[in-house]
Amino acid sequence: MSDIYVIGHKAPDTDTVCSAIVYAGIKGYKPATAGPINEETEFALKQFGVPAPEVLENASGKTLVLVDHNEPGQRVDGAEKILAIIDHHKMNFNYPDPIFIHVEPVGSTATVIAKMFPNEVKANKAYAGLLLSAILSDTVIFKSPTTTEEDKKIAQELAQVAGISDITKFGVDLKKAKASIKGKPVADVVHVDFKDYDFKGKKVGIGQTEVVDIEEVYERKDEFVNYLNELKNSKGYDMVIFMATDIIKEGTELYYVGNAAIIEKAFNVKVSGPSVWLPGVMSRKKQVAPPVEKVYLEG
Amino acid sequence: MSDIYVIGHKAPDTDTVCSAIVYAGIKGYKPATAGPINEETEFALKQFGVPAPEVLENASGKTLVLVDHNEPGQRVDGAEKILAIIDHHKMNFNYPDPIFIHVEPVGSTATVIAKMFPNEVKANKAYAGLLLSAILSDTVIFKSPTTTEEDKKIAQELAQVAGISDITKFGVDLKKAKASIKGKPVADVVHVDFKDYDFKGKKVGIGQTEVVDIEEVYERKDEFVNYLNELKNSKGYDMVIFMATDIIKEGTELYYVGNAAIIEKAFNVKVSGPSVWLPGVMSRKKQVAPPVEKVYLEG
Protein backbone atom coordinates (compact mmCIF):
# COMPACT_ATOMS: atom_id res chain seq x y z
CA MET A 1 0.00 0.00 0.00
CA SER A 2 1.05 3.54 -0.67
CA ASP A 3 2.97 5.45 1.98
CA ILE A 4 1.20 8.68 1.13
CA TYR A 5 -1.18 10.00 3.80
CA VAL A 6 -4.22 12.17 3.13
CA ILE A 7 -4.89 14.37 6.15
CA GLY A 8 -7.06 17.32 7.17
CA HIS A 9 -6.52 20.14 9.64
CA LYS A 10 -5.96 20.06 13.39
CA ALA A 11 -9.12 19.77 15.51
CA PRO A 12 -10.70 17.62 12.76
CA ASP A 13 -14.29 18.22 11.67
CA THR A 14 -16.55 16.13 9.45
CA ASP A 15 -15.49 17.79 6.18
CA THR A 16 -11.78 17.35 6.86
CA VAL A 17 -12.12 13.69 7.92
CA CYS A 18 -14.58 12.52 5.25
CA SER A 19 -12.70 14.34 2.49
CA ALA A 20 -9.48 12.62 3.57
CA ILE A 21 -11.13 9.19 3.58
CA VAL A 22 -12.71 9.55 0.14
CA TYR A 23 -9.71 11.15 -1.57
CA ALA A 24 -7.39 8.49 -0.09
CA GLY A 25 -9.75 5.72 -1.17
CA ILE A 26 -9.96 6.93 -4.75
CA LYS A 27 -6.22 7.53 -5.08
CA GLY A 28 -5.02 4.44 -3.21
CA TYR A 29 -3.46 6.51 -0.41
CA LYS A 30 -3.90 6.16 3.38
CA PRO A 31 -6.47 8.33 5.19
CA ALA A 32 -5.45 9.91 8.51
CA THR A 33 -6.65 12.54 10.96
CA ALA A 34 -4.55 15.05 12.87
CA GLY A 35 -6.47 14.31 16.08
CA PRO A 36 -9.43 12.34 17.47
CA ILE A 37 -12.67 12.63 15.51
CA ASN A 38 -15.75 14.31 17.01
CA GLU A 39 -19.21 12.80 17.67
CA GLU A 40 -20.69 14.23 14.49
CA THR A 41 -18.04 12.61 12.30
CA GLU A 42 -18.46 9.37 14.26
CA PHE A 43 -22.17 9.46 13.45
CA ALA A 44 -21.43 9.84 9.72
CA LEU A 45 -18.86 7.04 9.66
CA LYS A 46 -21.22 4.70 11.51
CA GLN A 47 -24.12 5.56 9.21
CA PHE A 48 -22.14 4.48 6.13
CA GLY A 49 -20.16 1.64 7.73
CA VAL A 50 -16.72 3.21 7.35
CA PRO A 51 -13.98 2.74 10.00
CA ALA A 52 -12.32 5.80 11.55
CA PRO A 53 -8.95 6.67 9.97
CA GLU A 54 -5.63 6.35 11.74
CA VAL A 55 -4.82 9.24 14.10
CA LEU A 56 -1.50 10.76 13.03
CA GLU A 57 -0.45 13.41 15.53
CA ASN A 58 3.02 13.75 14.07
CA ALA A 59 3.63 13.35 10.36
CA SER A 60 7.44 13.66 10.29
CA GLY A 61 8.99 11.84 7.35
CA LYS A 62 5.60 11.18 5.72
CA THR A 63 4.46 12.40 2.32
CA LEU A 64 1.13 14.20 2.72
CA VAL A 65 -1.86 15.26 0.70
CA LEU A 66 -3.56 18.10 2.60
CA VAL A 67 -7.33 18.34 2.39
CA ASP A 68 -9.56 21.15 3.70
CA HIS A 69 -6.67 23.44 4.76
CA ASN A 70 -3.47 24.92 3.45
CA GLU A 71 -2.15 27.43 6.04
CA PRO A 72 0.93 26.32 8.01
CA GLY A 73 -0.73 26.98 11.40
CA GLN A 74 -3.52 24.49 10.74
CA ARG A 75 -1.28 21.60 9.70
CA VAL A 76 -0.50 18.42 11.61
CA ASP A 77 2.82 18.63 13.48
CA GLY A 78 5.84 17.50 11.47
CA ALA A 79 4.24 18.15 8.08
CA GLU A 80 7.09 18.74 5.64
CA LYS A 81 6.73 16.91 2.35
CA ILE A 82 3.47 17.95 0.68
CA LEU A 83 2.36 16.29 -2.54
CA ALA A 84 -0.98 18.01 -3.18
CA ILE A 85 -3.68 20.25 -1.70
CA ILE A 86 -7.45 19.96 -2.16
CA ASP A 87 -9.28 22.76 -0.39
CA HIS A 88 -12.02 25.41 -0.31
CA HIS A 89 -10.35 27.98 1.96
CA LYS A 90 -8.40 31.13 1.27
CA MET A 91 -4.80 30.45 0.26
CA ASN A 92 -1.81 31.17 2.48
CA PHE A 93 0.75 28.74 1.18
CA ASN A 94 4.40 28.95 0.25
CA TYR A 95 6.25 25.85 -0.94
CA PRO A 96 9.55 25.42 -2.80
CA ASP A 97 8.33 22.96 -5.48
CA PRO A 98 5.44 23.03 -7.93
CA ILE A 99 2.76 20.62 -6.62
CA PHE A 100 -0.83 19.74 -7.51
CA ILE A 101 -3.23 22.27 -5.97
CA HIS A 102 -6.95 22.47 -6.52
CA VAL A 103 -9.09 24.94 -4.60
CA GLU A 104 -12.65 26.06 -5.32
CA PRO A 105 -14.62 28.74 -3.47
CA VAL A 106 -17.50 26.44 -2.44
CA GLY A 107 -19.03 25.45 0.89
CA SER A 108 -16.96 22.33 1.59
CA THR A 109 -13.95 20.36 0.42
CA ALA A 110 -16.34 17.45 -0.10
CA THR A 111 -18.02 19.40 -2.91
CA VAL A 112 -14.64 19.91 -4.59
CA ILE A 113 -13.84 16.17 -4.38
CA ALA A 114 -17.29 15.14 -5.66
CA LYS A 115 -16.72 17.43 -8.68
CA MET A 116 -13.22 16.05 -9.30
CA PHE A 117 -14.26 12.39 -9.25
CA PRO A 118 -17.93 12.17 -10.33
CA ASN A 119 -17.71 8.57 -11.58
CA GLU A 120 -15.82 7.13 -8.60
CA VAL A 121 -18.22 8.82 -6.19
CA LYS A 122 -21.37 7.73 -8.05
CA ALA A 123 -20.14 4.12 -7.95
CA ASN A 124 -19.60 4.04 -4.19
CA LYS A 125 -22.47 4.47 -1.74
CA ALA A 126 -20.18 5.01 1.26
CA TYR A 127 -18.11 7.71 -0.52
CA ALA A 128 -21.32 9.50 -1.53
CA GLY A 129 -22.67 9.29 2.03
CA LEU A 130 -19.48 10.61 3.62
CA LEU A 131 -19.23 13.52 1.18
CA LEU A 132 -22.92 14.34 1.70
CA SER A 133 -22.32 14.38 5.48
CA ALA A 134 -19.33 16.68 5.01
CA ILE A 135 -21.29 19.15 2.85
CA LEU A 136 -24.20 19.25 5.31
CA SER A 137 -21.79 19.74 8.20
CA ASP A 138 -19.70 22.52 6.65
CA THR A 139 -22.65 24.43 5.18
CA VAL A 140 -24.76 23.94 8.36
CA ILE A 141 -27.41 22.19 6.25
CA PHE A 142 -27.12 24.91 3.53
CA LYS A 143 -27.78 27.72 6.04
CA SER A 144 -24.25 29.08 6.20
CA PRO A 145 -23.58 32.11 3.97
CA THR A 146 -20.64 30.11 2.54
CA THR A 147 -23.13 27.78 0.79
CA THR A 148 -23.16 27.89 -3.03
CA GLU A 149 -25.68 26.52 -5.55
CA GLU A 150 -23.08 23.90 -6.44
CA ASP A 151 -23.03 22.55 -2.88
CA LYS A 152 -26.81 22.09 -2.99
CA LYS A 153 -26.80 20.46 -6.42
CA ILE A 154 -23.96 18.06 -5.57
CA ALA A 155 -25.57 17.19 -2.23
CA GLN A 156 -28.80 16.20 -4.03
CA GLU A 157 -26.86 13.89 -6.34
CA LEU A 158 -24.88 12.39 -3.46
CA ALA A 159 -28.05 11.80 -1.40
CA GLN A 160 -29.52 9.73 -4.24
CA VAL A 161 -26.43 7.53 -4.42
CA ALA A 162 -26.22 7.25 -0.62
CA GLY A 163 -29.91 6.36 -0.24
CA ILE A 164 -30.78 9.40 1.90
CA SER A 165 -34.33 10.49 1.03
CA ASP A 166 -34.71 13.42 3.46
CA ILE A 167 -31.54 15.50 3.35
CA THR A 168 -32.63 18.03 5.96
CA LYS A 169 -33.65 15.35 8.47
CA PHE A 170 -30.33 13.57 7.92
CA GLY A 171 -28.49 16.86 8.40
CA VAL A 172 -30.28 17.59 11.66
CA ASP A 173 -29.57 14.06 12.97
CA LEU A 174 -25.91 14.54 12.04
CA LYS A 175 -25.69 17.92 13.76
CA LYS A 176 -27.52 16.62 16.82
CA ALA A 177 -24.83 13.99 17.31
CA LYS A 178 -22.43 16.57 18.70
CA ALA A 179 -24.77 19.49 19.36
CA SER A 180 -25.92 18.64 22.87
CA ILE A 181 -23.78 20.34 25.49
CA LYS A 182 -25.42 18.42 28.35
CA GLY A 183 -22.77 17.17 30.74
CA LYS A 184 -19.89 18.79 28.83
CA PRO A 185 -17.56 21.15 30.72
CA VAL A 186 -17.99 24.78 29.52
CA ALA A 187 -14.27 25.01 28.71
CA ASP A 188 -14.64 22.10 26.27
CA VAL A 189 -17.74 23.61 24.67
CA VAL A 190 -16.08 27.03 24.21
CA HIS A 191 -12.84 25.53 22.90
CA VAL A 192 -14.18 22.90 20.51
CA ASP A 193 -13.89 25.54 17.75
CA PHE A 194 -12.01 28.58 19.00
CA LYS A 195 -9.83 31.04 17.08
CA ASP A 196 -7.49 33.83 18.15
CA TYR A 197 -7.39 37.03 16.11
CA ASP A 198 -5.12 40.05 16.15
CA PHE A 199 -7.28 43.13 15.59
CA LYS A 200 -5.02 46.19 15.35
CA GLY A 201 -2.64 44.76 17.95
CA LYS A 202 -5.41 43.63 20.32
CA LYS A 203 -5.97 39.93 21.01
CA VAL A 204 -9.54 38.80 20.44
CA GLY A 205 -10.75 35.20 20.86
CA ILE A 206 -13.92 33.90 19.21
CA GLY A 207 -15.35 30.45 19.95
CA GLN A 208 -18.38 28.88 18.33
CA THR A 209 -20.65 25.96 19.07
CA GLU A 210 -23.62 24.81 17.07
CA VAL A 211 -26.65 23.67 19.04
CA VAL A 212 -30.04 22.33 18.06
CA ASP A 213 -31.61 23.47 21.34
CA ILE A 214 -30.48 26.90 22.54
CA GLU A 215 -32.22 26.33 25.92
CA GLU A 216 -29.31 24.08 26.94
CA VAL A 217 -27.05 27.12 26.65
CA TYR A 218 -29.43 29.53 28.39
CA GLU A 219 -29.64 27.18 31.38
CA ARG A 220 -25.88 27.50 31.91
CA LYS A 221 -25.53 31.20 31.09
CA ASP A 222 -23.65 32.10 34.30
CA GLU A 223 -21.21 29.26 33.82
CA PHE A 224 -20.36 30.50 30.32
CA VAL A 225 -19.96 34.14 31.36
CA ASN A 226 -17.75 33.21 34.31
CA TYR A 227 -15.55 31.04 32.09
CA LEU A 228 -15.19 33.76 29.44
CA ASN A 229 -14.15 36.26 32.14
CA GLU A 230 -11.60 33.82 33.49
CA LEU A 231 -10.22 33.29 29.97
CA LYS A 232 -10.01 37.03 29.28
CA ASN A 233 -8.18 37.76 32.53
CA SER A 234 -5.75 34.86 32.40
CA LYS A 235 -4.75 34.97 28.71
CA GLY A 236 -4.45 38.67 27.91
CA TYR A 237 -7.50 38.97 25.66
CA ASP A 238 -9.00 42.38 24.97
CA MET A 239 -12.28 40.62 24.22
CA VAL A 240 -13.58 37.06 24.27
CA ILE A 241 -16.67 36.12 22.28
CA PHE A 242 -18.60 32.86 22.34
CA MET A 243 -21.17 32.13 19.65
CA ALA A 244 -23.90 29.64 20.57
CA THR A 245 -25.39 29.16 17.11
CA ASP A 246 -28.84 27.57 16.94
CA ILE A 247 -28.96 25.83 13.57
CA ILE A 248 -32.70 25.23 13.77
CA LYS A 249 -33.73 28.77 14.76
CA GLU A 250 -30.95 30.16 12.52
CA GLY A 251 -29.33 32.67 14.77
CA THR A 252 -26.62 33.10 17.37
CA GLU A 253 -26.72 33.94 21.05
CA LEU A 254 -23.48 35.87 21.25
CA TYR A 255 -21.79 35.96 24.67
CA TYR A 256 -18.95 38.40 25.20
CA VAL A 257 -16.63 39.83 27.81
CA GLY A 258 -14.94 43.13 27.06
CA ASN A 259 -16.19 46.51 25.90
CA ALA A 260 -19.95 46.31 25.18
CA ALA A 261 -19.70 49.36 22.90
CA ILE A 262 -17.68 47.29 20.42
CA ILE A 263 -20.47 44.71 20.18
CA GLU A 264 -23.11 47.43 19.84
CA LYS A 265 -21.21 49.10 17.01
CA ALA A 266 -20.26 45.88 15.23
CA PHE A 267 -23.78 44.46 15.10
CA ASN A 268 -25.80 47.68 15.31
CA VAL A 269 -27.66 46.50 18.45
CA LYS A 270 -28.28 47.63 22.04
CA VAL A 271 -26.97 45.23 24.66
CA SER A 272 -28.06 45.09 28.28
CA GLY A 273 -26.07 42.17 29.65
CA PRO A 274 -23.33 39.73 28.76
CA SER A 275 -25.09 38.36 25.67
CA VAL A 276 -27.28 39.30 22.73
CA TRP A 277 -29.38 37.32 20.22
CA LEU A 278 -28.34 37.93 16.60
CA PRO A 279 -30.94 36.53 14.20
CA GLY A 280 -29.56 35.08 10.93
CA VAL A 281 -25.96 35.09 12.16
CA MET A 282 -24.43 31.64 11.50
CA SER A 283 -20.84 32.22 10.39
CA ARG A 284 -17.90 33.42 12.48
CA LYS A 285 -15.80 33.86 9.35
CA LYS A 286 -18.32 35.89 7.38
CA GLN A 287 -20.63 37.50 9.95
CA VAL A 288 -18.80 37.96 13.26
CA ALA A 289 -15.03 38.35 12.86
CA PRO A 290 -15.21 40.97 10.02
CA PRO A 291 -17.60 43.48 11.71
CA VAL A 292 -15.73 43.20 15.05
CA GLU A 293 -12.40 43.75 13.29
CA LYS A 294 -13.88 46.78 11.51
CA VAL A 295 -14.74 48.43 14.84
CA TYR A 296 -11.20 47.82 16.12
CA LEU A 297 -9.69 49.29 12.95
CA GLU A 298 -11.94 52.36 13.12
CA GLY A 299 -11.60 52.83 16.87
CA MET B 1 -18.32 41.41 -22.95
CA SER B 2 -16.94 40.46 -19.59
CA ASP B 3 -14.76 42.89 -17.67
CA ILE B 4 -12.55 40.11 -16.37
CA TYR B 5 -8.99 40.06 -17.74
CA VAL B 6 -6.84 36.94 -18.05
CA ILE B 7 -3.19 37.89 -17.74
CA GLY B 8 0.22 36.27 -17.39
CA HIS B 9 3.43 37.38 -15.70
CA LYS B 10 5.64 40.39 -16.39
CA ALA B 11 8.15 39.99 -19.26
CA PRO B 12 5.60 37.78 -21.06
CA ASP B 13 6.70 34.55 -22.75
CA THR B 14 4.80 32.28 -25.13
CA ASP B 15 3.26 30.10 -22.39
CA THR B 16 1.95 33.05 -20.42
CA VAL B 17 0.46 34.82 -23.49
CA CYS B 18 -1.05 31.78 -25.24
CA SER B 19 -2.48 30.41 -21.99
CA ALA B 20 -4.15 33.78 -21.34
CA ILE B 21 -5.64 33.90 -24.84
CA VAL B 22 -7.06 30.36 -24.74
CA TYR B 23 -8.40 30.52 -21.17
CA ALA B 24 -10.01 33.90 -21.88
CA GLY B 25 -11.53 32.59 -25.11
CA ILE B 26 -13.05 29.54 -23.46
CA LYS B 27 -14.41 31.49 -20.47
CA GLY B 28 -15.61 34.58 -22.34
CA TYR B 29 -13.08 36.83 -20.58
CA LYS B 30 -10.59 39.31 -22.11
CA PRO B 31 -6.99 38.25 -22.77
CA ALA B 32 -4.21 40.68 -21.87
CA THR B 33 -0.44 40.76 -21.45
CA ALA B 34 1.58 42.59 -18.80
CA GLY B 35 3.99 43.89 -21.45
CA PRO B 36 4.86 43.65 -25.15
CA ILE B 37 5.06 40.13 -26.58
CA ASN B 38 8.36 38.69 -27.85
CA GLU B 39 9.23 37.48 -31.37
CA GLU B 40 8.61 33.83 -30.53
CA THR B 41 5.07 34.52 -29.34
CA GLU B 42 4.50 36.72 -32.38
CA PHE B 43 5.51 33.77 -34.58
CA ALA B 44 3.00 31.49 -32.84
CA LEU B 45 0.14 34.01 -33.08
CA LYS B 46 0.83 34.61 -36.77
CA GLN B 47 1.04 30.88 -37.49
CA PHE B 48 -2.49 30.33 -36.12
CA GLY B 49 -4.00 33.64 -37.20
CA VAL B 50 -4.66 35.02 -33.72
CA PRO B 51 -4.31 38.74 -32.93
CA ALA B 52 -2.03 39.86 -30.10
CA PRO B 53 -3.88 40.58 -26.85
CA GLU B 54 -4.24 44.01 -25.31
CA VAL B 55 -1.19 45.22 -23.37
CA LEU B 56 -2.27 46.06 -19.84
CA GLU B 57 0.63 47.57 -17.94
CA ASN B 58 -1.50 48.65 -15.01
CA ALA B 59 -4.46 46.56 -13.90
CA SER B 60 -5.85 48.82 -11.14
CA GLY B 61 -9.55 48.33 -10.62
CA LYS B 62 -9.70 45.27 -12.90
CA THR B 63 -10.73 41.75 -11.91
CA LEU B 64 -7.98 39.34 -12.97
CA VAL B 65 -7.45 35.68 -13.67
CA LEU B 66 -3.72 35.00 -13.32
CA VAL B 67 -2.19 32.37 -15.61
CA ASP B 68 1.35 30.96 -15.46
CA HIS B 69 2.33 32.75 -12.23
CA ASN B 70 1.11 33.37 -8.70
CA GLU B 71 3.88 35.18 -6.77
CA PRO B 72 3.25 38.85 -6.01
CA GLY B 73 6.58 39.97 -7.55
CA GLN B 74 5.69 38.59 -10.97
CA ARG B 75 2.28 40.24 -11.23
CA VAL B 76 1.23 43.12 -13.44
CA ASP B 77 1.26 46.44 -11.57
CA GLY B 78 -2.01 47.34 -9.84
CA ALA B 79 -3.18 43.73 -9.53
CA GLU B 80 -5.59 43.63 -6.60
CA LYS B 81 -8.78 41.70 -7.26
CA ILE B 82 -7.91 38.13 -8.25
CA LEU B 83 -10.65 35.72 -9.31
CA ALA B 84 -8.64 32.60 -10.15
CA ILE B 85 -5.17 31.20 -10.77
CA ILE B 86 -4.14 28.59 -13.35
CA ASP B 87 -0.46 27.73 -13.08
CA HIS B 88 2.37 25.19 -13.07
CA HIS B 89 4.83 26.97 -10.74
CA LYS B 90 5.56 26.66 -7.05
CA MET B 91 3.02 28.44 -4.88
CA ASN B 92 3.75 31.64 -2.98
CA PHE B 93 0.31 33.16 -2.62
CA ASN B 94 -1.64 34.74 0.19
CA TYR B 95 -5.12 36.11 -0.46
CA PRO B 96 -7.94 37.04 1.92
CA ASP B 97 -10.79 35.21 0.10
CA PRO B 98 -11.20 31.65 -1.14
CA ILE B 99 -10.79 31.70 -4.93
CA PHE B 100 -10.49 29.10 -7.71
CA ILE B 101 -6.90 27.82 -7.94
CA HIS B 102 -5.64 25.01 -10.12
CA VAL B 103 -1.96 24.18 -10.31
CA GLU B 104 -0.28 21.06 -11.71
CA PRO B 105 3.43 20.22 -11.62
CA VAL B 106 3.81 19.88 -15.41
CA GLY B 107 6.01 21.60 -18.00
CA SER B 108 3.67 24.42 -18.98
CA THR B 109 0.43 26.17 -18.06
CA ALA B 110 -0.78 25.26 -21.57
CA THR B 111 -0.73 21.58 -20.57
CA VAL B 112 -2.89 22.38 -17.53
CA ILE B 113 -5.42 24.27 -19.66
CA ALA B 114 -5.52 21.54 -22.33
CA LYS B 115 -6.32 19.02 -19.56
CA MET B 116 -9.01 21.25 -18.05
CA PHE B 117 -10.87 21.86 -21.31
CA PRO B 118 -10.25 18.87 -23.62
CA ASN B 119 -13.43 19.34 -25.66
CA GLU B 120 -13.13 23.09 -26.19
CA VAL B 121 -9.50 22.72 -27.26
CA LYS B 122 -10.15 19.79 -29.61
CA ALA B 123 -12.85 21.84 -31.34
CA ASN B 124 -10.64 24.85 -32.01
CA LYS B 125 -7.59 24.61 -34.27
CA ALA B 126 -6.18 27.97 -33.15
CA TYR B 127 -6.49 27.12 -29.44
CA ALA B 128 -4.73 23.80 -30.05
CA GLY B 129 -1.97 25.52 -32.03
CA LEU B 130 -1.36 28.20 -29.40
CA LEU B 131 -1.25 25.66 -26.56
CA LEU B 132 1.11 23.42 -28.57
CA SER B 133 3.39 26.44 -29.15
CA ALA B 134 3.34 27.23 -25.44
CA ILE B 135 4.24 23.66 -24.44
CA LEU B 136 7.12 23.51 -26.95
CA SER B 137 8.36 26.89 -25.75
CA ASP B 138 8.25 26.20 -22.02
CA THR B 139 9.67 22.66 -22.25
CA VAL B 140 12.32 23.73 -24.83
CA ILE B 141 10.90 21.15 -27.28
CA PHE B 142 10.70 18.55 -24.47
CA LYS B 143 14.38 18.92 -23.59
CA SER B 144 13.93 20.83 -20.33
CA PRO B 145 14.08 18.66 -17.19
CA THR B 146 10.70 20.17 -16.24
CA THR B 147 9.06 18.16 -19.07
CA THR B 148 6.62 15.42 -18.03
CA GLU B 149 5.10 12.53 -19.97
CA GLU B 150 1.81 14.43 -19.86
CA ASP B 151 3.31 17.41 -21.70
CA LYS B 152 4.45 15.10 -24.51
CA LYS B 153 1.15 13.25 -24.74
CA ILE B 154 -0.95 16.43 -24.76
CA ALA B 155 1.37 18.05 -27.31
CA GLN B 156 0.84 15.09 -29.69
CA GLU B 157 -2.92 15.47 -29.41
CA LEU B 158 -2.75 19.23 -29.90
CA ALA B 159 -0.48 18.88 -32.96
CA GLN B 160 -3.09 16.66 -34.63
CA VAL B 161 -5.83 19.22 -34.07
CA ALA B 162 -3.56 22.10 -35.13
CA GLY B 163 -2.40 20.34 -38.30
CA ILE B 164 1.29 20.28 -37.31
CA SER B 165 2.83 17.07 -38.69
CA ASP B 166 6.43 17.55 -37.53
CA ILE B 167 6.39 18.77 -33.93
CA THR B 168 10.16 19.08 -33.57
CA LYS B 169 10.54 21.09 -36.77
CA PHE B 170 7.71 23.39 -35.66
CA GLY B 171 9.36 23.78 -32.25
CA VAL B 172 12.71 24.72 -33.80
CA ASP B 173 11.05 27.25 -36.12
CA LEU B 174 9.28 28.73 -33.12
CA LYS B 175 12.45 28.96 -31.06
CA LYS B 176 14.41 30.40 -34.00
CA ALA B 177 11.99 33.31 -34.18
CA LYS B 178 13.56 34.94 -31.13
CA ALA B 179 16.80 32.97 -30.83
CA SER B 180 19.03 34.99 -33.08
CA ILE B 181 21.03 37.58 -31.16
CA LYS B 182 22.34 39.21 -34.34
CA GLY B 183 22.12 42.99 -34.07
CA LYS B 184 20.76 42.90 -30.50
CA PRO B 185 22.64 44.86 -27.79
CA VAL B 186 24.33 42.50 -25.27
CA ALA B 187 22.52 44.19 -22.39
CA ASP B 188 19.17 43.27 -23.98
CA VAL B 189 20.27 39.67 -24.61
CA VAL B 190 21.50 39.20 -21.02
CA HIS B 191 18.42 40.84 -19.51
CA VAL B 192 15.66 39.27 -21.59
CA ASP B 193 15.40 36.61 -18.85
CA PHE B 194 17.45 37.60 -15.82
CA LYS B 195 16.91 36.77 -12.14
CA ASP B 196 18.50 38.01 -8.93
CA TYR B 197 19.15 35.53 -6.12
CA ASP B 198 20.23 35.93 -2.51
CA PHE B 199 22.65 33.11 -1.70
CA LYS B 200 23.60 33.30 1.98
CA GLY B 201 23.50 37.10 1.92
CA LYS B 202 25.42 37.40 -1.37
CA LYS B 203 23.72 38.82 -4.46
CA VAL B 204 23.99 36.57 -7.52
CA GLY B 205 22.43 37.36 -10.91
CA ILE B 206 21.73 34.69 -13.52
CA GLY B 207 20.57 35.50 -17.05
CA GLN B 208 19.65 33.01 -19.74
CA THR B 209 19.15 33.14 -23.49
CA GLU B 210 18.23 30.26 -25.75
CA VAL B 211 19.99 30.14 -29.12
CA VAL B 212 19.80 27.77 -32.05
CA ASP B 213 23.30 28.69 -33.20
CA ILE B 214 25.87 29.07 -30.40
CA GLU B 215 28.42 30.53 -32.87
CA GLU B 216 26.53 33.83 -32.73
CA VAL B 217 27.40 33.99 -29.03
CA TYR B 218 31.02 32.89 -29.44
CA GLU B 219 31.58 35.65 -32.00
CA ARG B 220 30.67 38.27 -29.38
CA LYS B 221 32.34 36.64 -26.37
CA ASP B 222 34.35 39.74 -25.35
CA GLU B 223 31.28 41.93 -25.51
CA PHE B 224 29.41 39.59 -23.15
CA VAL B 225 32.28 39.28 -20.67
CA ASN B 226 32.80 43.06 -20.60
CA TYR B 227 29.10 43.65 -20.00
CA LEU B 228 28.93 41.07 -17.18
CA ASN B 229 31.93 42.74 -15.49
CA GLU B 230 30.29 46.12 -15.79
CA LEU B 231 27.08 44.73 -14.29
CA LYS B 232 28.93 43.09 -11.38
CA ASN B 233 30.85 46.24 -10.50
CA SER B 234 27.98 48.68 -10.81
CA LYS B 235 25.21 46.70 -9.10
CA GLY B 236 26.92 45.02 -6.15
CA TYR B 237 26.79 41.44 -7.39
CA ASP B 238 29.10 38.83 -5.90
CA MET B 239 28.73 36.87 -9.13
CA VAL B 240 26.98 37.32 -12.46
CA ILE B 241 26.24 34.32 -14.67
CA PHE B 242 24.94 34.29 -18.23
CA MET B 243 23.69 31.06 -19.76
CA ALA B 244 23.75 30.84 -23.55
CA THR B 245 21.74 27.67 -23.97
CA ASP B 246 21.93 25.95 -27.34
CA ILE B 247 18.64 24.11 -27.72
CA ILE B 248 19.84 22.10 -30.71
CA LYS B 249 23.15 20.93 -29.23
CA GLU B 250 21.46 20.62 -25.81
CA GLY B 251 23.93 22.35 -23.60
CA THR B 252 24.88 25.72 -22.16
CA GLU B 253 27.90 27.93 -22.64
CA LEU B 254 28.05 29.43 -19.18
CA TYR B 255 29.71 32.85 -18.88
CA TYR B 256 30.53 34.15 -15.40
CA VAL B 257 32.30 36.92 -13.57
CA GLY B 258 33.25 36.31 -9.95
CA ASN B 259 35.11 33.52 -8.15
CA ALA B 260 35.96 30.74 -10.65
CA ALA B 261 36.29 28.23 -7.79
CA ILE B 262 32.53 28.50 -7.19
CA ILE B 263 31.80 27.49 -10.79
CA GLU B 264 34.33 24.64 -10.61
CA LYS B 265 32.79 23.28 -7.42
CA ALA B 266 29.16 23.76 -8.51
CA PHE B 267 29.53 21.96 -11.85
CA ASN B 268 32.51 19.73 -11.07
CA VAL B 269 34.55 21.16 -13.95
CA LYS B 270 37.91 22.88 -14.55
CA VAL B 271 37.60 26.35 -16.00
CA SER B 272 40.34 28.26 -17.78
CA GLY B 273 38.65 31.44 -18.85
CA PRO B 274 35.43 33.42 -18.42
CA SER B 275 33.18 30.64 -19.74
CA VAL B 276 32.66 26.88 -19.78
CA TRP B 277 30.53 24.51 -21.90
CA LEU B 278 28.11 22.42 -19.82
CA PRO B 279 26.62 19.60 -21.88
CA GLY B 280 23.00 18.68 -21.07
CA VAL B 281 22.42 21.80 -18.94
CA MET B 282 19.19 23.50 -20.12
CA SER B 283 17.44 24.78 -16.99
CA ARG B 284 18.46 27.67 -14.76
CA LYS B 285 15.85 26.66 -12.19
CA LYS B 286 16.80 23.00 -11.96
CA GLN B 287 20.43 22.78 -13.10
CA VAL B 288 22.23 26.06 -12.43
CA ALA B 289 20.76 28.02 -9.52
CA PRO B 290 20.62 25.01 -7.09
CA PRO B 291 24.27 23.82 -7.43
CA VAL B 292 25.58 27.40 -7.23
CA GLU B 293 23.48 28.08 -4.13
CA LYS B 294 24.82 24.86 -2.58
CA VAL B 295 28.43 26.06 -2.91
CA TYR B 296 27.52 29.40 -1.28
CA LEU B 297 25.79 27.62 1.59
CA GLU B 298 28.72 25.27 2.15
CA GLY B 299 31.39 27.94 1.67
Automatic annotation (TrEMBL), chains A, B:
Enzyme class: hydrolase
Cofactors: Mn(2+)
UniProt cross-references to SUPFAM superfamilies, sorted A to Z: DHH phosphoesterases
Catalyzed reaction equations: diphosphate + H2O = 2 phosphate + H(+)
Enzyme Commission no: 3.6.1.1
MF annotations from Gene Ontology: inorganic diphosphate phosphatase activity; metal ion binding
Domain of life: Bacteria
Domain DHHA2: 171-296
Name of the featured protein: inorganic diphosphatase
Taxonomic source organism: Thermodesulfovibrio aggregans
Lineage: Bacteria, Pseudomonadati, Nitrospirota, Thermodesulfovibrionia, Thermodesulfovibrionales
